[in-house]
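Please check this.
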Amino acid sequence: MSEPTGVVRVDVDAARLGGVDGLDVAYRRAGTGPALVLVHGAAEDGRVWTPQLASLSDELTVVAWDEPGAGASDDVPSDFTLADYADCLAGLIRSLGVGPAHVGGLSWGSTVVLELYRRHPGLVSTLVLTGAYAGWKGSLPAGEVVARVDGVRRLLAAPPEAFDPMFPGLFAAAPPAEFVPLLDAMTADVRPASMRTALEIMAEADLSTVLPGVVVPTLLLWGEQDARSPLAVARTMERAIPDATLVVIPGCGHVTNLDRPAAFDRAVRAFCRDHPPPG
């Protein structure tokens, strides 16, 4: 199983009153070539990109972070904001010297990536958004957002032995057997307080006004049977982002990179080849 390659200290808007001077952020890195920075979803860490670290590193420098509060990274501060997540990601990209990069986000990670683009566009060469949201508020009906927040609260209130963040709809059917140990390991390492912080931010985020201003090539990569971020969300993003390409993977759920890794990797590889970073 993929272990962190390293840890870097990144600044988090040190001028912010009451803010955090810096956090240790862990990451995995494999390969050489143009950089592809991958951002995981909620209740996950950089291990979710294990197949891509192996398969895409033959022609790309693949970097997968553990966001603050996940994996081997520092705990997320209680007053963290979406901007802080994005600034941490920017700090990692700068520390590793890999920008401007292809930057991809899965689910909650896509919201972080859109905020990164809004705040630090010079670090982003292209966007790869899979099972994405412009925040829950920015992509889902209000009633659905309320239902999801209630579901998260019930999950976090459950006793430890009943805690299971494998929400229905993450996969088209059962998770592929080869990835069940990986999913179990990530679940065992989830920090409920950090998960609460991320999903409360997700519920309130509305980055829909950011989408028309995205001027870099964007790949929207969706599972045909995604029940978490339905294809209607993808179609809305496709209309809103000027240079967007939508690829739909048949028979696939929300976690596209694990549900159908070969199809996911083919689409990302082709997109990155077609849109090399400048310089």
Q: What stands out?
A: Strands lie at 6-12, 20-30, 35-39, 61-65, 101-106, 124-130, 218-223, 244-249. The chain has ten helices and eight strands. Residues 14-20 have pLDDT under 50 and may be disordered.
